[in-house]
What we know:
Elements: E1 21-22, E2 28-30, H1 32-35, H2 42-58, E3 61-65, H3 71-85, H4 89-92, E4 104-106, E5 110-111, E6 114-115, E7 119-124, E8 129-132, E9 142-145, H5 156-181, E10 199-205, E11 217-220, E12 226-231, E13 237-240, E14 247-249, E15 257-261, H6 263-268, E16 278-280, E17 288-295, E18 302-303, E19 321-322, H7 323-331
Parallel strand pairs: 1-14, 2-3
Antiparallel strand pairs: 3-15, 4-7, 5-6, 7-10, 8-9, 10-17, 11-16, 12-15, 12-17, 13-14, 13-16, 18-19
Helix pairs in contact: 2-5, 3-5
Amino acid sequence: MGEVDPAFIQDPEHRPKISYMEGKGVPLIDLSPILSSNNVSAIEFEGLVKEVGDACKEWGFFQVINHGVPLEKRERIDGASRKFFAQSLEEKRKVRRNEKKVTGYYDTEHTKNVRDWKEVFDFAVEGPSIVPASHEPDDSEVIELNNQWPENPPELRETCQDYGQEMVKLAYRLLELIALSLDLPADRFHGFFKDQTSFIRLNHYPPCPTPELALGVGRHKDAGALTILAQDDVGGLEVKQKTDGEWVRVKPTPDAYIINVGDIIQVWSNDTYESVEHRVIVNSERERYSYPFFLLPPLSTMVEPLEELTNKKNPAKYRAYNWGEFISNRSQSNFQKQKVENLQISDFKISE
């Protein structure tokens, strides 16, 4: 990644600014009330639910501390990830991802038809995964897919699987708070994630000689339900403020996780909560590592506004869509430039 290929260069209107605003407004939420063994007062718990709801409504993003994920497990996946990416390209490409093998190593991903300045390693948290046999929308065939694990570092597989279970536990805690903030039963979303297709991505962003022209990940919204991100102290995540459309940097908070709601929660909540655009900038001096967990339902899931959140005054704003078909269509643009922008939930919006 030494020379800057034109494939990495963003259009002028999407290039990052060298000076930036720091996202002090992205809420920092203490989850200790739901983890404490002591009796938590109703006022404390209701306050936490309101904090989460306000953050989802105003930002679509928030950070959490005292989340219950052991620091040692996060340090282990960080260490194993750094060892994996430090290997030769030849070694990493032994577990290369392609259109048939959707997990593993990849270094030529595109976002919005521009190549990202990064390399990744993906693995499913529950295996084997059931995925479409092809990207053709009329192809109903599915295949069983197992994770690709490299020989080195030898501890990567166990470390990743262990960490994945911690992410699932945290995701369920967050889903309960989000459900309560929408005046739904705490377990309202749980049933959607039996046989989930969730995965974790190990991201490595090398130093970039022209950080003013390229992006680690271009502007996008997450298609799934919920994203839980661990990032190192380098930082680089930028969120588009809903109030004025300005990009703000999310300052790394030690041992915190960054949470954002995805398109699925936007649809389920009938636009009460919105999936927000974000991107990753790179720099010329330091490499950066991050580890997002993407909470995703099974491919057979039909995504539509929840009945409890729609009525005559607030009718459903989206037509139902099949998650498997949606994500299969979206993933085509990971491998090659498309002539049109990939599928968005706006394509299922019901016109008023």
